[in-house]
Amino acid sequence: MSSWIRACSLDDIEQEGARRFDHGGRTYAVFRSPDDEVFCTDGLCTHEAIHLAEGLVMDYEVECPKHAGAFDYRTGAAKRLPPCINLRTYPAKVEAGSVLVAISQ
What we know:
The protein is mainly β. Helix content is 0%, strand content 50%. The strands form three sheets. The chain has a four-stranded antiparallel beta sheet with strand order 2-3-4-9, with no helix packed on it. The protein is globular and about 40 Å long.
């Protein structure tokens, strides 16, 4: 079962930016797209467990800050090596200025 958890305020994330979100002993990354949609993925690169919220976000991709691998944060798809394992994604939405993420319990 999933429940909606408040990750942050929408204003906490720049357009084409990311923010780290920790919950239940796990790390997530919340992204704000160029058209102000929000997305959520696992927060660590599948290659070497580096925090993706610290990476470069451009258009709909996030670049890992360690080895420059890239993911499409909308789908979690690994787009550029070295990562070859996709990220898990989670439903995200904005309500009353807050970013909410549906995390399985």
